[in-house]
Fold this protein.
Amino acid sequence: MAEQVPELVQEIESTPRGGDFLFNPVGSRPFMTPERFSEEQRQFFATGTGFLQSDVFPAIGRIEAKDNALLRQLLGKAGELGLTAVDVPESFGGLGLDETTSMLVAESQSGYASWATTFGAHVGIGSLPIVFFGTPAQKARYLPDLASGKKVAAYALSEAGSGSDALSAKTVARLSPDGKHYLVNGGKMWITNGGFADVYVVFLKVDGTKFTALIVERGTPGFTQGREEHKLGIRGSSTTPLIFEDALVPVENVLGEVGKGHKIAFNILNVGRLKLAAFALGGMKWTLRASAAYAAQRKQFGKNIASFGLIREKLARAAAQTYASEAMTYRAAGAIDDAIAQLPDRGDPQGVMAAIEEYAIEASIMKVTGSEWMFQIIDEGLQIHGGNGFVEDYPIERAYRDCRVNRIFEGTNEINRLLIPGMIFKRAMKGEMPLLQAVQRVDEELADQAQFSPPVGRLAAERRGAEMAKRQFLFAAKWAATLGPSLEQRQEVLAALADVAIEAYAMDSVLGRTLAASGDTVLRDALCKLFCAESRERAFARARSALCDLVPPGEIEAQLQQLARLHKFTAVNTCEVREEIVPAILEAGGYPLAY
Ligand SMILES: Cc1cc2nc3c(=O)[nH]c(=O)nc-3n(C[C@H](O)[C@H](O)[C@H](O)COP(=O)(O)OP(=O)(O)OC[C@H]3O[C@@H](n4cnc5c(N)ncnc54)[C@H](O)[C@@H]3O)c2cc1C
């Protein structure tokens, strides 16, 4: 197939790097997709969904009434099936499986958000600090019981006065006169599993200055949990403050090094963000199932509402977003697995952590898209339910309330949007990303009209849209870079750049997946076309908005014209495309590409 868009970097690096989707052409490197899951990975997913159906769904009423004892019991049962052991090394009672399986298990536990949050906080941000940063003695003491679900973990970073600005925490620890304990004073806020966890990873400042993580056990003298919060959503999950009044914590419980707690806090959040995307993916599929079932049976004007174009449009868009989200989520998980496979010692937790950090840009992208796309899909799902969507008898009402928090925790979406271009510029400045080289290439391409020939071949307009989104990012990034350090203060510009990068990653992933897949090309191509038709327009609109905020008035018209050359509106009859998708949704009773 003739390549219609030239490459942005001269040579593609042999080792994949986080963020390289911005520079490499679509499909330049194969990546993990649902089509490539192993039998074992599929089996774990099936075990997880089976458990959710048989044990969690029937318990929803009791969990919503805040039955923490039941949550503990369910975690134990999940443990018996190995679902809480996936990320824990075999030497400490776990299964030591790959990131892809870990994400599949997370996705499998989604469909009732209070449970997903409880489970996610335990296996993810609660247990992983000990997996990655614990001493052998700490691992031996805590991990076997966390892996089996006998004990429950929580992660305590936020405080009443410090959420996004987590490093300004006021909780303090001082060494006791005999040097054997830390005396902890202060309080944490909004801690998931707070009311019933056994093991808390608590971030505080030793001597009021050194940001540090401590493992604090339930029952520690001077450590208590406050009352359960009354929340908009995820009401069945436990969220409490933690109170420390001269709490006595043994010095052996320092996790990592004194003064290096930020490394633990932020690295663990990267994993938390990826896992949140996997949970959100499960939520998208649950919603599509509920919405398709409702639309198929609800009659108005003598017809099923599923026959109306505006309802079909919502179902098709939800399926396309879900398809893209699958591609993005498992691509990131597979990239981490590949990076871990290249480590000299795959069991080295620091190496594993570095492999995860490499994909921090993707983690922030996944956090934003997972939470926002799920919210859109649930919002439209509720709309499909009409008045019934607004009453408690239908679970979509709860899902609508439950999903709102995803834009707030694991770093708000504002913070994650700021992080995306922030990390890109930082890596470029360190010479770890060929940003400058690629920016120059875009300038050369713009100077030479012949560089852009018309698209040819399968999904050609979509491929061109993806390559152009990357160029739009680079074009706007060039202007953003002229601001120097003051760019940090221009948050709207950074958020617009983040959005262009998000769409570029989404299109690159959905296309890479679709072009590599065999079988059912009609459905996959349609999902890809529908997603890309909207994504490339969003990318262009956000690149334009970044430029308008950046370029001086005398130059803006000329620069907008240049940007316009990096975009071509391609007509897509989305009504026709969606008819390749909706019958499959209605026949499957939900998302049509089950694992
Ligand atoms: C149900 C629930 C469960 C939670 N579970 C946990 C948990 O298990 N462990 C834990 O440690 N925490 C947990 N949290 C806390 C959560 O992580 C914080 O609420 C979140 O980080 C935001 O902090 P904040 O609420 O203080 O908001 P703030 O930081 O005060 O932010 C308020 C608004 O200002 C914006 N903002 C803040 N700073 C900036 C900036 N620099 N630039 C632009 N905008 C900015 C934010 O995006 C937000 O829109 C939980 C919260 C909830 C609601």
Observations:
- The longest strand covers residues 181-192.
- The two ends are 30 Å apart (CA to CA).
- The mean pLDDT is 96.
- The longest helix spans residues 261-297.
